[in-house]
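Just wondering, does anyone understand what follows?

——
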Amino acid sequence: MNRDEIARKFKQGVVLCRNGKLVEASNLFQQIIATGSEEPLHLSYHGLILATAHGRRREGLQLCQRAMAFDPAEPEVVLNLARLHEISGQKLQAIETLRRGLRANPEQPRLMKQIERLSPRKRPPLSMVDRDNAVNKSLAIMLARMTGKRGDSSGRTTPMAPRTLR
C-alpha cells in the first residue's frame, strides 16, 4: 500500500469512526497498521477503535500512549488517549493527559474545551470580583473550611479530610 492509499484509508477511517461505524473503521485502521505504520495518528485511532469497538482496552490504551509519546502536541492523539481514560473511568488521568497536551501545544482550544467539560469549576463566592482576586480566594478557602466541604472534579461537594497538626 503506498502513501496516498494509506492517507486515503486513514481519512475514510476517521470519517467512519466519527459516524459511529466502528467495525468498518477498524478494518481500515488494521490495514494501515499492517503496513508497519508508526504514525502517531494511525496508532492513536487504531488504539481507540480496539478499545471501543472490540473491548481490547489494554491494547488500545498502550497504542494511544505510544502515539502520545511520539507526538504529544497533536490534538487528536491527546484527545483519543483522554477519551480512553474517560471511558475506562479514569477521569483524573484523562484530565492530566489533556493538561500534558496543553503543555506541548498551549492554548489548543479543543483540549481546553475538554478540560472544562471534565473538570468544571465552582462559581466564585463574589461574582462581581474576578475569580483570581485575593478576596475571592480567601472567601472560598474560608467557606470550604467552615462547611467542611470542598469541590471535587465533578462539581459535587465532598467532605474534606481532617487536617492533622504537625
Observations:
- The longest strand covers residues 149-151.
- DSSP finds eight helices and two strands in the chain.
- The radius of gyration is 21 Å.
- Residues 124 and 132 are 9 Å apart (CA to CA).
